Amino acid sequence: MTEPTAWTVRLREGVRYSDGRPVTVEDVEALGWGVGNRAV
User: Fold this and answer.
1) pLDDT one-digit tens code per residue, 22-39
2) pTM for this one?
3) Neighbouring C-beta atoms of residue 28, cutoff 10 Å
4) Domain residue spans in the chain?
5) Using a CB cutoff of 8 Å and minimum separation of 24, what contacts does 23-28 make?
6) φ, ψ for residue 22 (rounded to 5)?
């Protein structure tokens, strides 16, 4: 945890979906880890 109300998520370089597309920051944000999400 970065702060009591913030998390730091680091993506490994080269991570891809099974169809070959790279996993992006936007993908992680869409999963609910984005700024302003209070559901943990």
Assistant:
1) 998 888 878 776 555 554
2) 0.53
3) 13
4) 1-40
5) none
6) -75, 145
